[in-house]
Amino acid sequence: MVRVNKLLLATSKSKFLQLFLVNFVLTQVLSDYQGGRWGQGQQRWSQDQRPPQQLRASIRRDSQLSSSSWSGGSQNQNQNQQRSLRSSTTRRPLRPQDFQPPRYQFPASVTQPGPPYQPPPIPPPTSQPPGPNRPAPPLQGMPTSRYDPSSSSSEPSWSRWNSSPRRGRRGGRGGGWSAPGNNPPSPPPSSSLNDPLNPYRHDVTLDPESRFKLTWVVDWSRNLTIFNVTVRTTGWIGFGLALRTPEQQQEHEVADFIIGGVNRDGSSYFTDRHDSLALNAGADPFTRIPPIDPSQDWTLNSFWERSGRTFLSISRPLDTCDVAHDIPITQDSLRIIWAIGETDDIAYHTKNRGYYDAYLLTPDLTPREVLDGQGGQDPSSPMQVFNMTTTFQIPERETTYWCTWHRAPTNTKQHIIGFDTAFPTDQDRQHVHHLLIHRCHAPPGIDPDDLFEGPSNTGGSECYYYDTPNPLPLQYCRETMHVWGVGGRPFFFPDHVGLAMSENGTEYIVLQVHYDNPELRSDLNVTLTLQAFYTDEVREHDVSMLGIGQQIPAATSIISPPNTRGHATVGICPSACTEKGLQGQEVNILAGWLHTHTTGSASRFMHFRGDRELPWIISDDNWNFNYQQFRVLNQERRLLPGDRLSARCEYDTTRRNGSAVAGGFGTAESMCTGHVYYYPRQAGFSMCRTVTRDEDYWDLIKMRNATWDTERRQVVVTDPPEYAGLTVMEHINRNIDWTPEYIRELQRQHLFAPQVAQCSNTVFAPEISLRELNEMARRRAFLPLPPDPNAEHYAINPRNMPRYRKPQQCNARNPLIRG
Ligand SMILES: *[C@@H]1O[C@H](CO)[C@@H](O)[C@H](O)[C@H]1NC(C)=O
Ligand SMILES: *[C@@H]1O[C@H](CO)[C@@H](O)[C@H](O)[C@H]1NC(C)=O
Ligand SMILES: *[C@@H]1O[C@H](CO)[C@@H](O)[C@H](O)[C@H]1NC(C)=O
Ligand SMILES: *[C@@H]1O[C@H](CO)[C@@H](O)[C@H](O)[C@H]1NC(C)=O
Ligand SMILES: *[C@@H]1O[C@H](CO)[C@@H](O)[C@H](O)[C@H]1NC(C)=O
Ligand SMILES: *[C@@H]1O[C@H](CO)[C@@H](O)[C@H](O)[C@H]1NC(C)=O
Ligand SMILES: *[C@@H]1O[C@H](CO)[C@@H](O)[C@H](O)[C@H]1NC(C)=O
Fold this sequence. Notes:
Layout: H1 2-21, H2 32-35, H3 53-58, H4 77-82, H5 96-99, E1 201-205, E2 212-219, E3 224-231, E4 237-244, E5 252-262, E6 268-276, E7 299-306, E8 309-317, E9 334-340, E10 353-358, H6 368-371, E11 384-393, E12 399-407, E13 414-422, H7 426-430, E14 432-440, H8 448-457, E15 461-462, E16 477-485, E17 491-492, E18 497-501, E19 508-516, E20 525-535, E21 541-542, E22 544-550, E23 559-560, E24 565-573, H9 575-582, E25 587-596, E26 600-609, E27 612-620, E28 631-639, E29 644-652, E30 661-662, E31 672-679, E32 687-692, H10 695-700, E33 705-709, E34 714-719, H11 728-735, H12 740-752, E35 755-758, H13 770-779, E36 792-795
Parallel strand pairs: 18-21, 22-32
Antiparallel strand pairs: 1-2, 2-3, 3-8, 4-5, 4-9, 5-6, 7-8, 9-10, 11-20, 12-15, 12-19, 13-17, 13-18, 13-20, 14-16, 14-19, 22-31, 23-30, 24-29, 25-28, 25-31, 26-27, 26-29, 32-35, 33-34, 35-36
The structure holds 2-acetamido-2-deoxy-beta-D-glucopyranose (7 copies).
């Protein structure tokens, strides 16, 4: 057994190259097949031949997926060698629910943001507050004049880009975003708190009737957040933060909030309260009168009630240290919860309540006009919009990947400065899982129109495997430019960077959409628009995108045991890849996007240099599938050649009825990937992901070989023969005995087994002769990419290196919070 495995490993490199030949696939998509064992033994095929059916089928469906981890530890070698596939298991009777991942259910009533925010009316003079529980100190340092970055040249200009000269200043380039490197964060001065262009100020309307408006701003100089709420009611207001239960349920496991308002006599009432599932099985804090916190940590700074509106200005320290009753405001996503009472009797229940998911500390650089839905509408503005719109009748199956081609609107270099998505209806929105766009690079000497105009007129094509009726030149469109996931809101770059478009003349962009159709409806026409906002005022630096994490579909690399919380997997971008990809150049990471599926409970991008771990690049311990926001970092991070990155995900399978969950494309399967933006651009360094291919690991999961099953769209076991035909999900649920020892060993392997990385050049197309290319353009049949002999690297991280620890101001944890 072991010998066979060693042999496989030895031959895997050349096989890998062969497999790479068929990577026509959209992008970084390298599937597990390429990295894994199941491609072995394929015949080499010539460039004129189609790849074998099995491999064609294996070419992937979701271009943003994949995985990895560290190695280092093979302490248990002997033990592992003694393991054998046949030593396995008592076989349990096969029950369908063991194998069927639950269908993804759309959230029943997510709050849809209402119409554009209107600033609240100028408040009348404020009556002096004191709430019943504590006197509210007046806010210190509230500005009397606008923050003017030009008057404080040493301070960074965290400005929203204001594209219309008529609307005041434009974000200054000179001030820079923030100093790269490991300097302490340098947020804007508190005098800018009131500035509508302050990126730490967010204006949102929380309900469809526009009754509840919220402005929040982070005051970094005092480590607190100020929430101004203006609500159309003369009754009470409920407002606060909550953590969701796992698997994206709507119940709140813990809630930390205030109930407050203004009495008829002009006095106020205001209490800091808490609630939790443990206290309240009903789980909604506004259906009963929840307990008052012993420590009152929210402060009412000012309030008024007039013309049927109530205004409260509330502040709260980022971390109150009331670990038993408050939720710290961190880089994690949090759920803002709200409720509107119709009277001042807080015992009166209300139906007017909801929630809004947010990263409270993430800067938002979206220009005002985009927030107002007016972005790119003004022809005289330097900011224009390129709409990539697609309408598609979804097939009657759960998961579909569909690509359409779009010709960029100009022929001279532009900078894309931000993105947004538009869905005409909620139904359209609910059936889209993610979008990705990739830049197409026609090979030298080939007119991009010849290559890509045809496909751009066909209405698109299925795009996760090669064998479609109308093969399209996907292999030339592999440089990922942007990615959007469920719940994502607009994303804008800071002022000193932009994403190049039409740099070398005519350019085509392919838009890949993953459609979700869990109800298997046949009548769904889904329309969506990806809006790219661009300007000809080219900025200082070009950005590129880098995909990291575990290779997709990671069926065998991500295996979460049944009924567990916190099982982790890691995907690495090893030193050899950053050395090769960065070609001696230091770059700066400025934004990141985490991606896992509904079993995901936490995710982070980690960064290693030499023998130490640097602070995480981004992290979220409350991972929320329904809110996948691309985030600008609070502080840029310098990435050096030789550094290592890794994406780590944790999973929660306690809501899966005792099923183990394997990796896959579907929403109910697991995934662990993500992207970052960095500058300056390094052409070709756009993907760096790994797969677990270690023989001990494969022994442990009792598999020797697997293949992609086109019909089932699942990875299926082919060897050992007694398990052949089972999907990986079925196999692990049927043939693994999930003892605590087994789970510990699986976890050890997931974190420390050696992994194989793929970090090839995904930008430039193969060097083929002009004659061949012309012929290809005529035939519209497409050649495979040549192998990249340097594509493969083992990812090794020392096991015992000092690890970064998340800073905790208060040295205790909320006992109500899970984990
Ligand atoms: C794995 O399976 C594929 C077909 O499914 C086969 O071509 C290949 O030879 C197998 N590899 C090994 C090592 O058995
Ligand atoms: C919040 O309200 C206070 C009191 O009215 C006001 O001074 C402050 O400017 C407001 N902050 C924002 C960001 O609107
Ligand atoms: C704010 O928090 C940071 C990080 O925890 C800390 O270094 C800083 O001293 C705090 N500032 C204030 C004013 O408390
Ligand atoms: C782009 O799409 C948005 C959203 O659908 C729409 O409001 C806008 O009018 C479109 N703009 C252009 C120039 O097509
Ligand atoms: C444009 O062409 C130059 C020179 O060949 C190349 O360095 C650059 O990467 C190209 N840009 C794009 C976006 O293809
Ligand atoms: C969906 O759109 C196509 C054309 O775009 C049309 O033929 C079809 O009837 C539409 N189907 C539904 C259910 O609206
Ligand atoms: C778990 O089983 C219950 C009862 O059979 C069912 O209602 C529920 O949908 C199942 N949940 C999942 C995630 O499959």
